[in-house]
Design brief:
CATH class of the domain at 93-188 and 202-353 and 387-414: Alpha Beta
Structural class: alpha/beta
Function: Thought to be a Golgi-localized beta-glycan synthase that polymerize the backbones of noncellulosic polysaccharides (hemicelluloses) of plant cell wall.
GO molecular function: cellulose synthase (UDP-forming) activity
Bound molecules: uridine-5'-diphosphate-glucose, manganese (II) ion
CATH topology of the domain at 93-188 and 202-353 and 387-414: Spore Coat Polysaccharide Biosynthesis Protein SpsA, Chain A
Radius of gyration: 28 Å
Organism: Arachis duranensis (Wild peanut)
Strand content: 5-15%
Binding site for UDP-alpha-D-glucose: 118, 147
Number of helices: 28
Protein name: Cellulose synthase-like protein E6 isoform X1
Distance between the termini: 84 Å
Largest sheet: 8 strands, mixed
Length: 745
């Protein structure tokens, strides 16, 4: 019987196809020329070592070390450009081959951490779009993990569960693609007339009605939020509110599990009489003396709680600010997992992160187009994907810690639903689940080590993905034409830098920990994957060569020390080539990926600022943590913006407001130093010291990138500009550096 089934599948269309990018040969040729120029640069450094003064020798050594580091990093980045793989799933083949009965149940996890930083309205928009997936609702369960332990969030979720009774039928009836009410209504406001339902009277009426319901819910939630507590009259509508008392605090409360919509309840239906998906609120127990392991802890509690309630074999993990924006994503993803010949060893399918609030030229370079279209697909070419914490579908088994070989031994079926009929009441299920979400539950277990997400690293996602890959699983990166998930990008420099500091720090921590891909992955994953991971893990140390390139050239101008060859010398060529080829290539890559020249320039600015601030302080903090001087933290990014900030953001004016003063001081000091260097350098060139030309170009580039910094220092006076306090500090520091360079060394 079994054989016959296999026979039928042989020769049948595949559920997904993998294609490799073209022109790889040409690229390899081009990359080799850069490699040659890098080697020549290093050769030049070693053979032309200056011995005249000690200062000169030290400066030279610093340049040599920086160039070695840049060179090594460049080699690492080649791994993700070697074998770029694009995936194309075939939803139609899937639907032809499997009927709904055979499809696996999907548990969707949404994490939120604080009702002030992450507005409940945003959270429920994500929940509502997840509930509205075009998928049999008896197979969908949506879990909200609330690390804020807030009744305000619970209230919003409860309200959303009522609104969903209208929203879901509406989405179905008019086959909406965007199923986040907020996103849908905002888009509708912008281009109502271009909407194809324009003349449809029925649509028009219903749309107005639903919109009114949404507005009412929104205003209820906002009023409650403003009051800071749920009104007495409202509390009577759900017994779940009893879980909160005046003593409940964010970091000190018992575990709360409330099934708000019970997927088995025949009365839990929408306006069309169709079953609603299950909705569960979870706030794991928090106590002051117990570490809660941030998002990783929340995810692990959800894995356990959901296994008790629905136990879907597939898990979709979302941040509260990432809403599903394509109703068919689950089916597309199933093409990978359910492919008969290649699906069994896939642990997870990761989608890229997209944002709906980017400015025309992506002011803070949040979109990472080249990363999404090329680099991540480049790791995929080696058979793995980076798990990025959101927009990722996991096989429950692999996420929970199974090794592929054990899994294979256990079952050779494609995803099957293992949940057996459960006759327990909602209250019984709530109580049973609560026990899985207590502070002590994990004591003496392998949770956070070999089971679930890994603890102790602020980018729990990357480390966990790596651990899963090393357990023998493959993973897929899929970047579909129509965006699958859309989130919120930072709208101030501060948030952008804090986020990158956490990332660079967490990733470097992975590199230094036992999870270092070269060691942990040795003999388990191929070298392409090991290197691919390191493209990101090494952001923090990359700050050091960047800083020396930003500091030494201007200081050496002042002293009159040349660091690069004469423009008339042949040695000038490899430097010039490496510079032009790298930047030219990066620009082409960006343009091919659909970016504009201006966005590319913004990316260069943000890269410079990130490397010299976020990554540098990330580096320092990682080192102090290694020495045991401080502890891991997870600074949740603020997703709320004031009108003032929003206006500046829309006008693409950099908002320096709120920036940590140490990061700002660093930024301004470097900007001033290079401005000064440039002026002195120009004087030297005029005096005929042509040898300074490369140094001048470097400083000139840094000055160009920093134009908005000078503007914020000397011209602007709005709230997003730089305070005089920081300006004075930076002036003193920059002058001190010049003074030391001139007189001390
Ligand atoms: O104690 C915590 C802290 C955070 N979160 C949630 O984690 C998510 C990510 O937090 P956010 O502040 O938005 O961080 P980002 O920098 O935007 O997140 C990126 O980086 C994180 C790792 O640093 C990944 O976990 C995320 O998926 C990825 O989107 C949010 O949904 C939070 O609610 C928790 O549930 N509990
Ligand atoms: Mn986020």
């Amino acid at each position: 019987m079994r054989e016959k089934e296999d026979d039928e599948i042989v020769g049948a269309p595949l559920l997904f196809e993998t294609k490799e990018a073209r022109f790889r040969g040409a690229y390899k040729l081009f990359a080799s020329t850069i490699l040659v120029s890098i080697s020549l640069i290093l050769f030049y450094r070693v053979t032309n070592f200056p011995t005249a003064t000690r200062t000169e020798s030290w400066a030279w050594i610093a340049m040599l070390v920086s160039e070695i580091l840049f060179g090594l990093y460049w080699i690492i980045t080649q791994s993700v450009r070697w074998r770029i793989a694009f995936q194309s799933p075939s939803k139609h083949t899937l639907l032809q081959r499997y009927d709904e009965e055979k499809m696996p149940a999907v548990d969707i996890f949404v994490c939120t951490a604080d009702p002030k930083l992450e507005p409940p309205l945003m959270v429920i928009n994500t929940i509502l779009s997840a509930m509205a997936y075009n998928y049999p609702s008896n197979k969908l369960s949506v879990y909200l993990s609330d690390d804020g332990g807030s009744e305000l969030t619970f209230y919003a979720l409860f309200k959303a569960s009522i609104f969903s009774k209208h929203w879901l039928p509406f989405c179905r009836k008019f086959n909406l693609q965007t199923r986040s009410p907020h996103a849908y209504f905002s888009a509708l406001n912008h281009n109502y007339h271009s909407h194809h339902h324009d003349h449809d009277d029925d649509f028009h009426k219903q749309c107005l009605f639903i919109k009114k319901l949404y507005e009412e819910m929104k205003s209820d939630i906002e009023t409650t939020l403003a009051k800071g507590k749920v009104a007495h009259s409202e509390r009577n509508f759900h017994k779940g509110f009893k879980e909160w008392s005046s003593k409940t605090k964010k970091q000190d409360h018992h575990s709360i599990v409330q099934i708000i919509i019970d997927g088995r309840d025949k009365n839990a239906v929408d306006e069309d009489g169709i079953q609603l998906p299950r909705v569960v609120y979870v706030a794991r127990e928090k106590r002051p003396n117990y570490p809660h392991h941030f998002k990783a802890g929340a995810m692990n509690a959800l894995i356990r709680v959901s296994s008790e309630i629905s136990n879907g074999p597939l898990i979709l993990n979302l941040d509260c600010d990432m809403y599903p924006s394509n109703a068919d994503t689950i089916q597309e993803t199933l093409c990978f997992f359910m492919d008969e010949s290649r699906g069994q060893n896939i642990a997870y399918v990761q989608f890229p992160q997209n944002y709906n609030n980017l400015t025309n030229n992506d002011l803070y370079a949040s979109s990472c187009l080249a990363t999404d279209m090329i680099e991540l697909a480049g790791i995929s070419g080696h058979g793995a994907a980076l798990y990025c914490g959101t927009g990722c579908f996991h096989r429950r088994e692999s996420l929970s810690g199974a090794h592929f070989k054990d899994y294979k031994a256990k079952l050779d079926h494609i995803m099957i639903n293992t949940k057996i009929e459960d006759n327990r009441t909602v209250d019984e299920l709530n109580e049973a689940s609560k026990l899985l979400a207590t502070c002590t539950y994990e004591h003496g277990t392998l949770w956070g080590k070999e089971m679930g997400l890994v603890y102790g690293i602020p980018v729990e996602d990357i480390a966990s993905g790596l651990a899963i890959t090393c357990r023998g699983w493959r993973s897929i990166y899929y970047n579909p034409e129509r965006k699958a998930f859309i989130g919120v990008a930072p709208t101030t420099l501060d948030v952008a830098l804090v986020q990158h500091k956490r990332w660079s720090e967490g990733m470097f921590q992975i590199f230094l920990s036992k999870y270092c891909p070269f060691i942990y992955g040795h003999a388990k994953i191929n070298i392409g994957i090991q290197m691919g991971y390191c493209v990101y893990l090494l952001w923090a140390p990359l700050s050091l060569p960047t800083l020396s390139y930003a500091i030494l050239p201007p200081l050496c101008f002042i002293r009159g020390i040349p660091l690069f060859p004469q423009p008339t010398s042949l040695w000038f060529l490899p430097f010039a080539y490496a510079f032009v080829a790298n930047n030219g290539y990066s620009l082409c890559e960006a343009l091919i990926c659909g970016s504009t020249i201006k966005s590319w320039l913004n990316l260069q600015r943000m890269r410079f600022i990130r490397r010299t601030t976020s990554y540098f302080f990330g580096f320092i903090d990682t080192i102090t943590k290694q020495l045991g001087l401080s502890q891991t933290n997870f600074v949740v990014t603020d997703k709320v913006v004031t009108e003032d900030v929003q206006k500046r953001y829309e006008k693409e004016i950099i908002d320096f407001g709120g920036c940590s003063s140490i990061m700002l001081t660093m930024m301004v000091t470097l900007a001033l130093l290079n401005l000064l260097g440039l002026l002195v350098g120009i004087r030297r060139i005029i005096m005929g010291q042509l040898i300074m030309i490369i140094q001048i170009v470097i400083s000139a580039m840094i000055v160009m990138v920093n134009l908005p910094v000078y503007e914020a220092l000397f011209i602007r006076s709005d709230k997003g500009s730089i305070s005089s306090n920081v300006m004075i500090k930076s002036f003193v520091l920059a002058s001190l550096a010049c003074f030391i360079a001139t007189f001390v060394f």
